[in-house]
Amino acid sequence: MASDTVGILPNTRFVPLAWRNLLSNKRRLLRSSAGIGFAVLLMLVQLGFERAFFDASLGVVRQLDGDLFVMRASNRCFSCPRSWRKPVS
Description:
The protein is mainly α. The protein has one domain.
């Protein structure tokens, strides 16, 4: 078993034991690689959701063209039309 693994190894001097451990059990290597790939995919999806959330939250603020805005303290919704705002009692 070990002689078969040594034959397919690249010519490395530093980590032949690590290559033997990786290639000795192909099913375990495949399962581990699939798990790592799935974890990376989940992280990329999470980063996409986070980016979309921030873009949606800051969309109104980015569209504003001004330096200083004065609003009533009773306004609870910055981007809602006046007809949607509930009167404060």
